[in-house]
């Protein structure tokens, strides 16, 4: 019988083998946001009751690529960068709950297990994927400069099939990188009971937002977006009717505790 | 507001995008079991209270490699085999709880996200890894035959560092592939509260076992095992004092519902 | 100044670091052959002069998936199976040269670097790819049995885009796994001069065939094949007009020296 | 019979399926150079006759990590960044040939097939590997700034085993990123005859250097380097006796034609 250590699983004698170091987590990276309008019913069908669509511009969503380094307070992951670098793509929709507007990652893909495990904690429904995003350069010809005319490509694939491709071209700068991902996150954390009878042992709505943000300028421009039919994805239900805009920004922030907004009792507990 | 479908996350309009199809799950594959004795205190320190060490042979553990195909009742994953094939390595220890002996996967590594997600449901603390295991052959020289003298290699690495290597050589056959992994599984399912204040929103002990087993003959023999120092793992705390034996077997079975043995109330639920 | 060792590159003090062990190479694995007829002009355009199309059935080609273990005479790779296991997909066409009929791998994809390097030596134009192929099983439900009704899936993707998918269903057995891949291989080995002025420093036609074949029974059946548009591939120029048949077989063989059929002088040598 | 297109293999009807676009190639990226002194005999044993060690400081070598985007003149790869981004690590030694000093990549690892194929053309003996290198950041805590105190980690692994790890800490700036990699490259291009009788069909010494260099400032500092024993590598024969220095620089350049310095006739050509 032992006192086990560690934030998530496995909890172990020293804590070194845990899949995810404990919070806070620090992030530095680059975000490419493509905002577009789709059929509002395709957004509404992503919102479990009692969440409701945002009343204004209900078809507006954002598909966001990010290329991150993240680390714990020890910063040690930065010196073993396989454990710090990851990429992600996520679809953000807006919703209302108890009169407040939230952003919500309805779909999200990452390329490392520690990021996937952090998603389980934060309620981001992360699957693994292959993700690529052009990096800006300051020398040479093999990349865009952060200036008008700079062009970026971004792709996401799973099981060897493309999910979406985007091209972004800088036109100028902007105040904000869009409006869809501008609210606190509202996520579901759900775990089927091991009895697998339709009940959930864990069923919560949680909210969180980053802190200590340090932000680069917002580069804004034109975007093209292709969402491909894919038998293991449903992103293609959100046909882009109209591109709102594209935004690139270097972002630093930190994340730690959030707040449980609502939680069901564990029906398996007596 | 929508009725979302799917067993695990994300729950979606059609269910097609879920990371894991719903149960039951069927498995066919090959298991290579290396049983060895280590310091019983290194086993005991892996057992959270109130679990207790098995009274007999408390230093006996098993490191098991498996090369699987798995699928849902639809069998559709078998025709897109990226979604069916995966490999795993797990350390099994035995423990006692309420007077009963269980097997328990203290550490486990897999190489696909759907397997990792299934681990979250089943309480297997799965991390991603690179796993390799020699396959037996029936023709040619590039592999062992399932007969005395057949030799298999097995390796597991994470972040580009080996965790363990094994070599197994068939001597003959046996009735059982060891005794460590012979009990129902007892696993913890725990989820930190989003408040990240030390409380768990989900804290359960669950048990499960396979059904509809269809088993090949057990090939038994000699085994060598090296566990490497590795800064992100703690497997090296289990020094092999003595190899008990090695076992190779082709295994088919199915898994579905288990039983919640104990569950704490969700402290976040009012 | 040193005597360097090794078959291919790098040639090094001990030879241990070479990308590819020296010959002979032994192979054991499973081959899934899909033979189909396409437009003969799509075959002819793959044959560099002076190669000519095979006179009989000139539109018949084969797309072959293989799941291999391979090793050198030391067999050591089999105990570190990351270095032994690889998968490949190749398009075989037939051609005539100096009155003899040959098989020729016009396109080929593999998933390991040692296999790619061996392709450079043998004239197989190997690119890296993600390749999957269902494995038959002898126990359990998660895989086909080697008997009528057994169904296999096979896929190949590159840069996160599918190139081709196939489904094969066993109907019975056959004498031969088709006729397209039944001849000695005729491959080009070409290397642009470092001057990059259109000349080749190396320009050869080479032939080789396996030896010490040990073959399992041929399972024959129905096949479906989809070749997808893909901007980095040209396989989609070979539209399947008619499926000839599908064949699955376990294959063991060895390969070593071949024969130079024709070689140009190195224009850079004085 | 067809006129096939493409720079390297496969040569195809349109050229789109070639593993490597034709030259010139443009590069933008980040290079981390660790210069150290080792036993001069460990350097000399890497030089095939008639190459001779550099007369000055003959034990000085450089292990260099690079994180690149590269593209052809079309720039199209930059919009499908899986085809543009790659990482590499290479060991540079110096040598003399015909009275001139050259740099030479004795070992090199990359993580993409197009980079490996370009190595075959350029005489870089590239193997595949897992490579990671910390990226500097301009916002947030999850990465070093390009200023004194900024710390970078760099790792390379193959077959799930580390080859080398480095840590670099910026102290200030410098004029040059060391002296080992400052000469034109001298590489061997060799291809065994398909007869595999010890003869080479291709045997050349080629030289090349980049052009259109656009260079960021050189950040110089302290470095730590660990080279691990590894059964499939020989880098551990170069024990670091003394670290000369570490250097980080953003680099843009282009490469195209080089010069054949020496070429043997192809013995297979009549």
Task: Give me some keywords for this one.
Acetoacetate decarboxylase-like; mainly beta; homotetramer; twelve-stranded mixed sheet; 15 strands; 270 residues
Q: Give the CATH architecture of chain A.
A: Beta Barrel
Order of helices and strands of chain A: EHEEEEHEEEEEEEEEE
Top-tier CATH class of chain A = Mainly Beta
Task: Note the gap between the termini of chain A.
Answer: 24 Å
| CATH fold name of chain A | Acetoacetate decarboxylase-like
Structural domain count of chain A: 1
Structural class from helices and strands of chain A? mainly beta
Supply Rg of chain A: 19 Å
**Count of alpha/pi helices of chain A:** 2
Specify the helix fraction band of chain A: under 10%
Strand content of chain A: over 45%
**What's the count of strands of chain A?**
15
Low-pLDDT runs of 5+ residues of chain A are none
List the helices and strands and how they pair.
The structure is a homotetramer of 270-residue chains.
Chain A: E1 25-37, H1 40-44, E2 52-53, E3 60-72, E4 85-97, E5 100-110, H2 113-122, E6 126-128, E7 130-133, E8 151-158, E9 161-174, E10 185-192, E11 200-208, E12 211-215, E13 218-227, E14 242-255, E15 259-263
Parallel strand pairs in A: 5-6
Antiparallel strand pairs in A: 1-3, 1-14, 2-4, 3-4, 4-5, 7-8, 8-9, 9-13, 10-11, 11-15, 12-14, 13-14
């Amino acid at each position: 019988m032992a006192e086990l250590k560690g934030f998530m699983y496995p909890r172990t004698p020293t804590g070194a083998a845990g899949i995810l170091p404990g919070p806070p987590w620090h992030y530095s990276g680059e975000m490419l946001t493509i905002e577009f309008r789709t059929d509002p019913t395709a957004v509404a069908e992503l919102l479990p009751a009692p969440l409701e669509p945002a009343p204004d511009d209900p078809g507006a969503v954002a598909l966001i690529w990010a290329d991150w380094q993240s680390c714990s307070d020890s910063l040690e992951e930065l010196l073993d960068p396989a454990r710090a670098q990851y990429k992600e793509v996520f679809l953000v929709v807006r919703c209302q709950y108890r009169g407040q507007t939230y952003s919500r990652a309805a779909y999200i893909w990452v390329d490392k297990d520690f990021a996937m495990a952090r998603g389980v904690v934060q309620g981001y429904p992360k699957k693994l994927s292959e993700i690529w995003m052009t990096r800006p350069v300051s020398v040479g010809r093999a990349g865009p400069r952060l200036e008008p005319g700079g062009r970026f490509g971004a792709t996401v694939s799973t099981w060897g099939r493309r999910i979406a491709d985007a091209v972004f071209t800088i036109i100028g700068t902007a105040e904000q990188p869009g409006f869809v991902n501008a609210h606190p996150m509202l996520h579901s954390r759900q775990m089927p009971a091991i009895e697998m009878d339709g009940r959930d042992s864990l069923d919560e709505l949680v909210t969180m937002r980053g802190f200590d943000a340090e932000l680069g300028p917002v580069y804004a421009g034109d975007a093209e977006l292709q969402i491909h039919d894919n038998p293991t994805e449903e992103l293609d239900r959100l046909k882009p009717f109209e591109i709102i805009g594209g935004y690139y920004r270097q972002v630093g922030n930190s994340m730690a505790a959030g707040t449980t907004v609502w939680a069901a009792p564990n029906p398996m507990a007596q």
